[in-house]
Design brief:
The protein contains ten helices and eight strands. By secondary structure, it is of the alpha/beta class. It has a single domain, classed as P-loop containing nucleotide triphosphate hydrolases (Rossmann fold), CATH 3.40.50.300. The longest helix is centred in the C-terminal third of the chain and has 22 residues. The protein starts with a strand and ends with a helix. It catalyses: CMP + ATP = CDP + ADP; dCMP + ATP = dCDP + ADP.
């Protein structure tokens, strides 16, 4: 069976990661959470007090960063490692969410992470979610989906995720954080968040995760059928 690249782009907390994981499981593909890569870089920058306005310091820091994914046999999750250390839980905290867009907007950071992502998907058979997968990382992806949802619904989902991890964050703060990230991500000069011309729009405001997964899997089935016919 031929393998393809499935690119899921869109706003924060609209179900991208959950959908991408389930789609990857169904297909037997690798799942790459590109947002986690930027979060890991943000964690490193914060821990090492990297001056974001100093290009030299940013480049020096990037040279010392290795982000990798390893499957946890206990929970079956692909977890993020920063220089050999498991940072999966730490990078999901609110203080990282508040800074990640400021770090990911930097051109050297995006160049470094996009290069790594392209390596990871070189052999196809991957599901990637992020902000610029269908536009910058894999513009030739066979399936592209742009996901979104109403900001209040996204904030509610994000708050529930944080509460599950015993992090209490006011709802209004989460709404403002999401709006700020949306603005920075969509207006940055380097690989801005935008819907690729050939991406299918998926509004997840009022549908279930299973419905989101089915939407993507239907697109994958069509893409694979077309690929078989073409070959």
């Amino acid at each position: 069976m031929k393998k393809i690249v499935v690119a899921l782009d869109g706003h924060s907390s609209c179900g991208k990661s959950t959908t991408a994981k389930k789609v990857a499981q169904e297909l037997g593909y690798a799942y790459i959470d590109t947002g986690a890569m930027y979060r890991a870089v943000t964690l490193y920058f914060l821990e090492h007090y990297v001056d974001l306005t100093n290009p030299k310091k940013v480049q020096e820091a990037l040279a010392n960063i290795e982000v990798s994914f390893h499957r946890n046999p206990k929970n079956g999750r692909n977890e993020v490692f920063l220089n050999g250390l498991n940072v999966e839980d730490e990078i999901r905290k609110m203080y990282i969410s508040e800074k990640v867009s400021e770090v990911s907007v930097l051109a050297p950071v995006r160049h470094a992470m996009v290069a790594e992502q392209k390596k990871m998907g070189k052999r196809r058979g991957v599901v990637m979610d992020g902000r610029d997968i269908g536009t910058a990382v894999f513009p030739d992806a066979e399936v592209k989906v742009f996901m979104t949802a109403e900001v209040e619904i996204r904030a509610k989902r994000r708050q529930e995720e944080l509460l599950a991890k015993k992090q209490l964050v006011p709802f209004d703060d989460i709404v403002e954080n999401l709006k700020k990230r949306d603005f920075i991500d969509s207006t940055r000069a380097e690989s801005p968040l935008k819907r690729a011309e050939d991406a299918h729009l998926l509004d997840t405001s009022y549908i279930t995760i299973d419905e989101q997964v089915d939407f993507v899997l239907d697109l994958v089935a069509s893409a694979l059928a077309l690929k078989e016919l073409a070959d």
